Amino acid sequence: MPELPEVEVTRRGIAPSVEGHEVTAVVLRRQGLRWPFPADLPALLQHRAVRSTARRGKYLLLQFDHGTLIIHLGMSGHLRVLPSDVPPKKHDHVDLQFGAHLMRFTDPRRFGAVLWHANDAGDIADHVLLRKLGVEPLTHPDLAGLLFQQTRQRNAAIKQVLLAGDIVVGVGNIYACESLFEARIHPNTPARRISRPRYERLATAIKRVLAAAIAQGGSTLRDFIGADGVSGYFQQSYAVYDREGAPCAHCGASIRRIVQGQRSTFYCGRCQR
User: Fold this and answer.
1) 38 labelled catalytic
2) How far apart are CA 164 and CA 151, in angstroms?
3) Catalytic-role residue among 55, 58, 104, 201
4) Which of 123, 137, 140, 262 is the most exposed place for a label (fewest CB within 10 A)?
């Protein structure tokens, strides 16, 4: 599933081709994906300009004068910017045309979403899909303090707390494994037992890992490609993720794998205590 880095890479990839551009046509080739498409979406968007793009967690936001188009890539979706005359393929479900080019949403597994939030429905931050999301890790001024304060009563393992997304968003399975390794914290450690100094190390690691993943185009997940059709290469930098049995780059011990909440967790038993 595309996580925060992949979604941010997508946002940056489409932004120059959509921001300030007027939608000339909307093509819907299905009635919906995870949820039905707004029935009047073509009428809502045609002849309207995209004013800006944004991201909240794993949701892409295309902001118009009268509302916001909310896009979720689901398990396997991606957006591409293409010439308008490129014919659609089997899993190309939505086109937003901007004259000579278009933005195409492809989603083979159809778990993605394209929704509309009108300005008169209230602040976009209060949308039902967004209002319970945690803070953005790359921009929050005191992520360590927030993590420390919000986990004093949490007995759950720190890995599971990171994945929950109610304190901080976007630290998906790959990036949680890598961040915990960099911070030298065992993934099964109860969140309430982690000290403020250790949360300082974890917050720094989260920011560094996510920023590095964005800079490298995200991870090459099975179905993810960027808006330019190129897969990311952050997987070449993995210290622990998907490296069970390989030697730890720091101490030489074998990387271990456990299952937490039906997700694989990779860590070094010697470095992470």
Assistant:
1) no
2) 12
3) 58
4) 262
Please confirm, yes or no, whether 12 is among the known catalytic residues.
Answer: no
Q: What does the block give as tokens for 249?
A: 């780059």
Q: Both 103 and 182 in a single domain? A: no
Please indicate whether residue 89 is annotated as part of the active site. no
Residues 242, 182 share a domain: yes
Q: Count how many residues are written for the chain.
A: 273
- Does 263 qualify as catalytic in the annotation? yes
Terminal alpha carbon distance of the chain: 29
120-157 residue pLDDT tens: 999 999 999 999 999 999 999 999 999 999 999 999 99
Identity of the residue numbered 59? Y
Residue-wise pLDDT tens digits, 84-97: 999 999 999 999 99
Whole-structure pTM value: 0.90
* Token duo for residue 120: 């008169």
* Residue 133 counted as domain residue: no
For residue 264, give its domain range.
143-268
**Which one of the listed residues 2, 5, 137, 187 is annotated catalytic?**
2
Task: Select from 111, 87, 73, 108 the least CA-distant residue to 227.
Answer: 73
The CATH number of the domain where 118 resides is what? 3.20.190.10
Look at residue 153 and tell me if it is in a domain: yes
Residue 67 within a domain: yes
Same domain, 215 and 255: yes
Domain assignment present for residue 44? The answer is yes
